Amino acid sequence: MGVVVPIEEGRSDPEASLNDLVALVARDMERVNACILSRTGSEVEMIPEVAQHLIASGGKRLRPILTLAAADLCGYRAGDGAVKLAASVEFMHTATLLHDDVVDESDMRRGRVAARIKWGNEASVLVGDFLLGQAFRMMVEVGSLRALDILSAAATVIAEGEVMQLTAAKNTETSEDEYLAVIRAKTAELFAAACEVGPVLAERPRAEQAACRSYGMNLGIAFQLVDDVLDYGGASASLGKNVGDDFREGKITLPIVLAFRRGSDEERGFWRRTLERGEVEAGDLDAALAILRRHRALEDTTERARHYGAMARDALALFPNGPTKSALLQVVDFCIARAH
Amino acid sequence: MGVVVPIEEGRSDPEASLNDLVALVARDMERVNACILSRTGSEVEMIPEVAQHLIASGGKRLRPILTLAAADLCGYRAGDGAVKLAASVEFMHTATLLHDDVVDESDMRRGRVAARIKWGNEASVLVGDFLLGQAFRMMVEVGSLRALDILSAAATVIAEGEVMQLTAAKNTETSEDEYLAVIRAKTAELFAAACEVGPVLAERPRAEQAACRSYGMNLGIAFQLVDDVLDYGGASASLGKNVGDDFREGKITLPIVLAFRRGSDEERGFWRRTLERGEVEAGDLDAALAILRRHRALEDTTERARHYGAMARDALALFPNGPTKSALLQVVDFCIARAH
Predict the structure, then answer these.
(1) Residues B204-225: b if buried by 16+ CB within 10 A, e if exposed
(2) What is the CA radius of gyration of chain B?
(3) In sequence order, which residues have a C-beta less than 8 Å from that of residue B26 and are 6 or more positions away?
(4) What's the burial of B3, exposed, middle or buried (CB within 10 Å: 0-12/13-18/19+)?
(5) Residue of chain B nearest A182, judged by CA positions
(6) B121 close to A (CB below 8 A)
(7) Of B47, B130, B160, the CB nearest to A130
(8) pLDDT of residue B168
(9) Which among A124, A125, A146 is the top mutation candidate for probing chain B, defined by the most B β-carbons within 10 Å of its own β-carbon?
(10) How far is CA A214 from CA A210, A228, A284, A314, B20, in A?
(11) Cβ atoms of A45 and B164 closer than 8 Å
């Protein structure tokens, strides 16, 4: 565990900023969890095994929480539509993780061995497909074509973002804008969709739909940038992800983009050797961390995250104050505070 | 090319049985093809490249043809719903192929090098996800919740079938019923869904929906069984699939199920060594073919296919005679005649 640095007076534990929101949607989240459990069921034994390995491994379920909260913010009270869409969003996320692990050849996920190591790449690809299918079935049950439109578009954009990343991967010349386009698509789009379907279900005006979407989008970008920082940072051990995974996989993330641009020719040579050509030697991760520190790349990535966090907050301005809005604003703190 | 054995008087070329149907839906298929082309577009260059590599490689597009024909059979004339659903069905099929090649570690597909060899497993997984996302977007545009329900359920069932196959794979004890459950799910379900959405769009009664579904399901089973035969048969070269692929991959298909049950202890030992343990030596494929011949396993698999073909025909009995119905009946001939 790294040292926790408070970023706002009175807040020292990042998880604390999430507590209000978690408490607020706790009852509906129980129904989401029951729904997730029942919808991973299949007579084909391997499917619930693989699905629940990942689902039960204690993600924060931030995305379905956001769906419930956004619906609540917009006064949605009618039935179980939000619960089913929240479960759909978590299934889409889980499917992405299963496929990502195959694509990235990852061995670990959330501090446990990745499903693909335990059951093989085949099972990870196919159970991902199964969960995506189940996600759509639940959406269809809810019956909102507009919500279906938003979430199916998100599924496409996420895949596009992953392919973009594949193309941009190992290219140290990637610009900040290009990198942002990737994470908007592969991470932030699902946050945006998760939030947008709330007001859609509640049949609120377009302006509120756009506000919730914008909140989710900017929160998602901040979230990913902080993840990038964590991958080189002290606190990451608590995520169960080894420090330096991105480095070893040759992933170009914003800290690298910044350090590469700000660096010397010699440093650029270092990034090209380690990230583009994958020639990583003992001591290279320490050397990478030293370069990142020298150029304040991690601090400035966190600064960028703060910027998107501020946009997320502003997006909610049009909603009247209240406990849900206040809890959603605190989630922004949570996302940023994780960086420290 | 193998020797073509006519199974009905006056028909010697299997492709000929498909001509009427192809001609019947030709105009709408042009729109489906345009739709497919436009919906594989993406600013991320690799996506259209990978998608079109497979899509342009000359599959028969049997599934979208069936969607158009079933809609036509049921008198659907209103707008482009059937065209979009047909394109969705083809996208679902293409996504499955991309993922299958990764799962099966195949090198070839439709006589061309598999996308995963050219662009990697990562791209195949992700472009498959992209196409699945696009398929759902098109369905959403059509706006029929019932069609969405049918096709999203099919997506789930297909993935389930693939996982079932993964579990059953290399198990020579697989029973005929178990094997049928696999191919119902992984192959026939999409044929069934492709046909069922036709009468759904045309808002025809449940009985017609069920009839079209049954036609598609049984045709799909027959189609897969004949594929299994082709994998051990002379005519397969024209499919661009090497004879013996299933054997080398240790796939348990119906010919094997039949030969295993009918065989001697020594023969069972042979199947266990080659298929379960994957210890394949020079001459084993010839030995396998000899055993299959000895037990009439390929002929009897074709007989089973004929049985499902007959059910497919009977399913259409409630529709009045006409050119579309007649063309759909001929497709059954086409599927069976391929075996020879």
Answers:
(1) beeebbebbbbbbbbbbbbbbb
(2) 20
(3) none
(4) exposed
(5) B44
(6) yes
(7) B160
(8) 77
(9) A125
(10) 6, 21, 39, 9, 52
(11) no
Whole-angstrom distance, CA of residue B93 vs CA of residue B226: 18
Which among A130, A132, A149 has the least Cβ separation from residue B140? A149
Q: What chain B residue is nearest to A137 in terms of C-alpha separation?
A: B152
Identify the burial level of A117 via C-beta atoms within 10 angstroms of its C-beta, where 0-12 means exposed, 13-18 middle and 19 or more buried.
Answer: middle
- Whether A200 contacts chain B with CB within 8 A: no
Please report the domains of chain A, with CATH numbers, ordered by start residue: 16-337 (1.10.600.10)
Decide if A136 and B123 are in contact by the 8 Å CB cutoff.
no
How many residues in total does chain A contain?
340
CA distance A91 to chain B (A): 12
Cβ-based contacts of B159 with chain A (< 8 Å): 126-127, 129-130, 132-133
Taking only the tens place, the pLDDT of each residue in B28-75 is 999 999 999 999 999 899 999 988 887 877 778 999 999 999 999 999
Question: Tens-of-pLDDT digits for all 340 residues of chain A?
Answer: 344 444 444 445 777 789 999 999 999 999 999 999 999 999 899 999 988 887 877 778 999 999 999 999 999 987 899 999 999 999 999 999 999 989 888 887 777 888 888 888 999 999 999 999 999 999 999 999 999 999 999 999 999 999 998 887 789 999 999 999 999 999 999 999 999 999 999 999 999 999 999 999 999 999 999 999 999 974 333 334 568 888 988 999 999 999 999 999 999 999 999 999 999 999 999 999 999 999 999 999 999 999 999 999 999 999 999 999 999 999 999 999 988 7
| Predicted confidence band of residue B10 (pLDDT cuts 50, 70, 90) | very low
Higher-confidence residue of B117 and A27: namely: A27
Alpha-carbon distance of A31 to A143, in angstroms, equals 19
Nearest to B132 among A42, A102, A132 (CB): A132
- Residues in CB range of B177: below 8 A, 6 or more apart: none
How many other β-carbons are positioned within 10 Å of the β-carbon of residue B81? 22
Distance from the B24 Cα atom to the nearest Cα atom in chain A, whole angstroms: 32
pLDDT at residue B6 in the model: 40
| CA-based nearest residue in chain A for residue B103 | A122
Judge: A133–B159 Cβ closer than 8 Å, yes or no.
yes
Q: Do A123 and B155 touch (CB under 8 A)?
A: no
Closest residue of chain A to B97, computed from CA coordinates: A126
ipTM above 0.90 for this complex? no
Distance from C-alpha of B212 to C-alpha of B198, rounded to nearest angstrom: 8
Residue numbers in A near B156 (CB within 8 A) = 130, 133-134, 137
Q: Which residue of A has its CA nearest to B153?
A: A137
